[in-house]
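Chapter review: from sequence to fold.
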Amino acid sequence: MSSSFFSMNAFEKFNLPFALNINLEDLEQRYFKAQHQYHPDRLKVSKVAHENATDGYAAAFNEAYQLLKDPLKRADHLLKCLGWLASDENLSGAQDPKLLALMMNLNERIEDAVTEKAKKNLSCFLENEIQQSWNELESSIDSQDKGNAVTLLTKLKYLNRLKLNLK
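The token string follows.
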């Protein structure tokens, strides 16, 4: 491995295609193979160089693995790799009136959901919205619709946060 390894994105580190949906079992196998290959006991270098090299590679693989195994982080990373989202860009749904209206409506529904049945119904609704938005995000990426992809990523982050807060 060379110093260029550290400038690679997470997909490149594991030699995976730039895709929203990836095979998580394949990712895990590649991760464990990399961890085994770059384990400190396997590298034959001086002790100081050995520790620095293995720590750096292990940390880089671990960070890339954590990023790719989480669907939202992977989507965010993919949009950044495509140049559709700046590294420091903060997503805001306030730019899209339909998304803003949905957010306000869902906040009201969460406040009104006091019974377990109401919470379960809302949770099912959120699951359906998440799945539909995920499918739309995949289509937007395939059709190179940058604006819609960024809006959908914002929506997905918000819906997932609501779902976690509902529990």
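Two observations follow directly from the output. Helices lie at 10-13, 24-37, 47-69, 71-81, 97-112, 116-142, 146-166. The two ends are 44 Å apart (CA to CA).
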